[in-house]
Amino acid sequence: MEGEVESGDLVWVNKLAYGPRLIQTLLSLPFSGNRLPFTKNSPSYSTWIELPYLRLPGYTHIKRNDVVVFNYPMELNLPVDKRNNYMKRCVGMPGDTLQIFDRDIFIGKKMLDGLSNYHYSYLIQATTDTLQTYANNHLHIEETEVGTNAKEYIFMMTRAQADSLRKLPCVTSVVPNTATYTSNVLFPKDPHFLWTDDDYGPIVIPKKGATVRLNIDSIALYERIIRDYEHHKLETKNDSIYIDGTYATHYTFKMNYYFMMGDNRDNSIDSRYWGFAPEDHIIGKGSMVVFSANPGPRGQSLWKRINIHRWFNWIH
Questions:
Q1: What does the pLDDT look like over 145-199, one tens digit per residue?
Q2: What's this model's pTM, rounded to 2 decimal places?
């Protein structure tokens, strides 16, 4: 989320906005994380009593482009409310048909309005080996990867910053550092879906009550929902699909799901990698940076690391 939220920011999460989620893991030691203090592997909670998912009414609903805090869906070995907190921007709503084409997000045929602080990876060719110093001091850009030679740079930056670099006489080329297809990295990790970070989809975001047709080619999109989030037994035999032991050609979703992406687009492990965020994983809305301090070099005092200019900034 760099660009909107930086490393070292302490963020206020509004849990009332979308409705407070009631506790699910009832037997838990508060303020202790998932491990008992002074132990290595002893959990600070017990799954003896687990309550069903229930959320009280909120005063608003998740909207497209909201910054949302949620439990990381891939930690299937932990109870939902004990999974790590993630913060991403909601770009796909339940029922949307989402596609990423040449880094731009489309909902249906309409391009999603981008924010000016989205960051992308760019490959820069220059005639000098001191461009990093200028980019850092004047444009606040850090080199994210080392190029193949001293005059080649890879920067994570906004499109406006890329345009500023193009105007420099020492810069000969600024081009997107585009990704290539890898079948074992991007969701749904299946060779039927030849997608990349920059060209992804189209994909339909599951919506509560909506019914989809199941077949052996598309089941990779929905198997985690059916098995892990909505807790059915799922089996595939030859070209047939069985849910709870019954032959199935369709499935109706019991929850809403969302497609989340980070603002630091080419350095974000988001829905392109792990799929949909279930409704029962939503914690609240990222609303304000209340305190900020740079991670800084080891041993540096907190006073020198404080970013007071970021305090009490609203998150947009």
A1: 666 777 888 888 888 888 988 999 999 999 988 766 666 789 999 888 889 888 9
A2: 0.90
Q: Is 127 exposed, middle or buried (0-12, 13-18, 19+ CB in 10 A)?
A: exposed
Residue 293: count of CB within 10 angstroms of its CB = 20
Q: Is the dihedral of CA 277, 279, 281, 287 positive or negative?
A: positive
Interstrand relation of 67-71 and 45-50 (parallel, antiparallel or unpaired): unpaired
Q: What is the pLDDT of residues 8-44, one digit of tens each?
A: 889 999 999 999 999 999 998 887 778 888 888 888 8
Q: Output the six-digit token pair for 229.
A: 């989030």
Question: Between 1.10.10.1400, 2.10.109.10, 3.20.20.30, 2.40.10.220, what CATH number should domain 9-20+48-113+181-289 receive?
Answer: 2.10.109.10
- How far is Cα 156 from Cα 264, in angstroms, rounded to an integer? 8
- Rounded Cα distance between 291 and 7, Å, is 11
Radius of gyration of the chain (CA): 22
Angle between helices 159-166 and 131-139 (to 10 degrees): 130
List, in sequence order, every beta strand (DSSP E) within 9-115: 9-14, 25-28, 45-50, 67-71, 85-92, 97-101, 104-107, 110-111
Q: How many residues does the chain have?
A: 316
Going by C-alpha positions, the residue among 161, 180, 168, 169 that lies closest to residue 122 is 161
Contact yes or no for 198/95 (Cβ under 8 A): no
Domain positions in the chain are 9-20+48-113+181-289
Provide the phi-psi class of 235: left if phi over 0, else alpha when psi is between -120 and 50, else beta: beta
* DSSP strand pairing (104-107 vs 110-111): antiparallel
